Amino acid sequence: MAERGQLPPPAKRLCCRPGYGSACRPGQRAGGAGPGSGALCAGPSSAAAAAALGLLPLGKTQSPESLLDIAARKVAEKWPFQRVEERFERIPEPVQRRIVYWSFPRSEREICMYSSFNTGAEDPAAALGGAATAPGGAADPSAAADENRLPFRRGIALLDGGCVDNVLQVGFHLSGTVTEPAMQSEPETVCNVAISFDRCKITSVTCSCGNKDIFYCAHVVALSLYRIRKPDQVKLHLPISETLFQMNRDQLQKFVQYLITVHHTEVLPTAQKLADEILSQNSEINQVHGAPDPTAGASIDDENCWHLDEEQVQEQVKLFLSQGGYHGSGKQLNLLFAKVREMLKMRDSNGARMLTLITEQFMADPRLSLWRQQGTAMTDKYRQLWDELGALWMCIVLNPHCKLEQKSSWLKQLKKWNSVDVCPWEDGNHGNELPNLTNALPQGANANQDSPNRPHRTVFTRAIEACDLHWQDSHLQHIISSDLYSNYCYHDDTENLLFDSQGWPLWHEHVPTACARVDALRSHGYPREALRLAIAVVNTLRRQQQKQLEMFRAQKKELLHRGVTSITNLEGWVGHPLDPIGTLFSSLMEACRVDDESFHGFSDFTDNMGQCRSLEYHHLPAHKFFEEGESYLTLAVEVALIGLGQQRIMPDGLYAQEKVCRNEEQLISKLQEIELDDTLVKIFRKQAVFLLEAGPYSGLGEVIHRESVPMHTFAKYLFTSLLPHDAELAYKTALRAMRLLVLESTAPSGDMSRPHHIASVVPNRYPRWFTLSHIESQQCELASTMLTAAKGDVRRLETVLESIQKNIHSSSHIFKLAQDAFKIATLMDSLPDITLLKVSLELGLQVMRMTLSTLNWRRREMVRWLVTCATEVGVYALDSIMQNWFTLFTPTEATSIVATTVMSNSTIVRLHLDCHQQEKLASSARTLALQCAMKDPQNCALSALTLCEKDHIAFETAYQIVLDAATTGMSYSQLFTIARYMEHRGYPMRAYKLATLAMTHLNLSYNQDTHPAINDVLWACALSHSLGKNELAAIIPLVVKSVKCATVLSDILRRCTLTTPGMVGLHGRRNSGKLMSLDKAPLRQLLDATIGAYINTTHSRLTHISPRHYSEFIEFLSKARETFLMAHDGHIQFTQFIDNLKQIYKGKKKLMMLVRERFG
After folding, report:
1. Is 1105 within 8 Å of 1127 (Cβ atoms)?
2. Separation of alpha carbons 677 and 684, rounded Å
3. pTM, two decimal places
4. Domain annotation covers residue 386
5. Same domain, 261 and 351
6. Which residues are within 8 A (CB) of 550 and not within 5 positions of it... i.e. 6 or more apart?
7. How far apart are CA 788 and CA 501, in angstroms?
8. Over the stretch 898-918, which tens digit does the pLDDT of each residue have?
9. pLDDT tens digit string along 1078-1114?
10. What is the DSSP letter of 898?
11. Boundaries of each SWIM-type domain copy (predicted)?
């Protein structure tokens, strides 16, 4: 990069001809002259300036620019050549040459604009700079690689590589060849390039490379830059018609014949056709005086604009839209919009032309009608593209210097699009009834029209309304044209004063409309004018803010006594379709950005080459209309704070609400880039105080409407910014912002006596807050930020806790805050903060109470965490939650999680408890367990027994609770589980008792041979068998009554016949009794029940049997036979049973054949 005061390297230098660009330095040497020129840039102190730049030795002088060149340059810029010819009968050849010479574009800025997308820098100059730089100044290789692929960059490379040749300028036509070097896979190619130009604009381009794109190819760029940088090396001829005019007949014939000879294959048919028509007296060609000349320049009627391939613009937009947001198409469309803004900033008429082409393709998108038919919303990114489209049309129609016929044409086109059924609405899928652009509030007979009767506002509505705006107001003209416009005759007796008490100009207009004017001025390349108007608008807002505060203070007692409020702003500025606050902020920030030369107009393009842009912001010298110590930076920050703090209603519709959140976060993100100093802190203090005291004008007023947009995100930023400087004010602001009235049942009512009360605007809409979950998460973030900051401050922690408990209504967010507080309180590098731990516990207890009677999938996690938190607080906290368990936990949670964790060894070790403390805690746990068992024996009895094992009285009480509940409220599975527990603990008789109770609740049908209770039944029978004959005799009738499944009964029967009952006694003594007889009770009863079960099951299975189950059925009969044969007459019974089957089911021949084969 060249040092300041030195020229850049020659290969990259922009060789400036006299008059090349408005920012050409006075006295800078021209890169070369055209025929007969040799002129230099004129200007005051040219020699000194040139010497300072190292171009001339001191003491040397330069010649002033010739009058011929000055005049020719002006004519070449403004007049079509036909007008010159008509104005003067004979134009001397030197004059023609200079006009032709100066008619080619002199600025590389436009060549860059028409050959590449802007890759991200606001200033198009960035595309001409050196390697792209990442934040901090380091080179970004990927960005540099992307930039080098741009046609403009490639064109420079081709020019620097000497690839441009045979350059010839004939009149207003430039031609040449550009050689594309051989690549690895492609041979060297030569491209023929032709460029037509008029009044310093390229009007058409052709290249044999066959480029199909919106932008000029690299070959066109290379040839154009060759002509700009090396004009003295280009052969310049007058238009070909002038040359032909100087030839006699013989010369003309020779010229034509040679031309045909050289290009006979291409032009011979055309030449013969033209000759025939010229020789025919009545031909059309002979009816016209003269002949066309493509090199003769523009006619008077020709539009003077840069070449834009309209067909390619339409094709590219159609392609991007068809990709539906995939493959980076959304990014490409945004780049197209950025290109339109770039053109507008250059005051290029193609900006509106290109936007028209883009809009036509957007309106033709087939998805619009599909979405409308299906009632589905378009995607968020696509919606944002439509927003940008509408905003651009606003800029175009607000062009301060557009002609009336242009505006009329645009209005007609906008109304046409606006009337199409599928034209997207401004606020997504909901029509709104926000004020008209030119009127803050609708007045008169139509003001109270019902919403359904009003037409929906589309994305074009504001642009259509803006067509009625004009710039002829004398006060407005004075504001934007002068830094010295003021008036010190001040009378504070009217609301819409033109000047404030200091004589500074004010601009009273609907704020979004006034800001739309600022944006239009910026967009059309009038940054100074935009800045002046922005300052006037901000000063007006500040004066209004002061007046609002005075008005509220006068009415404060009455309003607060009634507890009502009114909305003064039906249209919020943050999230507004025109983004008024963002516009003011950006305009002011641009003015204080370091090294932003582009702000002062179109700077010399070469000065920006190879320089990385600084993003630092400074307090630049004071403007006339600033208070002492103020700057553009303080004004930008203050207007952002004013906008963010405005009380405004939550708009209808998901998209509009998301936009409010998104714009607020974007604006805060920009504010966070600014480093606060003492001056800015004063601004923050001033605005925070206003927001707290301004009543209905502020979103942080004492009483706000229930549907006001919450201030959580903004308040969090204010809190973190003010905390190091004024903690009291920071907490006061954040605590005021914590409320979320839309979720409160006792929110302030509306003031129906005020004409602009929100209830009359948005009737019966609660709670249509689609972004409520996001809002609640922001509320949680604000609370978490305060908790973190308040660590170690008991008073502040108590205040924050109270605010959380009062204002946060989401259990999940309170739980998150409880967890956050716990983490902050127990950081590894410091002692636990006991106050913050108590806050964490209090929040946890609140969560428990909130979720006790509702379903919550995180409930178990919450309960476990609460016990952990209480453990950290201390033994008294654990004892407290057990004493009050019924307000916090379900009986199951209290026994299975809380009491169990409290009684664990890890808790005892963690708390370092002595024996007395352990016993006290255990006593509380046992009391809790018994209470839970009484309340919910089904789910808590087993846990209660387990917890009471070490206390005989408590254990006996728990067992009695189980017995009392067994006959009514407990299921067989619960009783079996407790019975097995009793056996395991060495109480077999109690286990037997519970098992018999469980059997009375059980019912196993014939086909439930895989029932989960089978193992419990087998265990119960085995337990009874081991206890003795009496116990077995008592349980078998219960089994017979409850179990109808043959296979289960036969299994029980077989097990009972293997060993003697009571074989292992209660005390382990082996019993030497005899095996029980199958012919006597109780086994006879079991055997008969088993045989009966087999018979019933067989008939039941045969009713619906299919051939694929025949073999399985035969095996079933085999098992049945084994059971039959256990009886003394079992053989006879089984034979009779088989004979009956053969008789009853003789229709099932195949099956009966299998039965006979197996059983006879």
Report:
1. no
2. 11
3. 0.76
4. yes
5. no
6. none
7. 45
8. 999 999 988 888 888 888 989
9. 767 778 888 888 888 888 988 888 888 888 888 888 8
10. I
11. 191-228
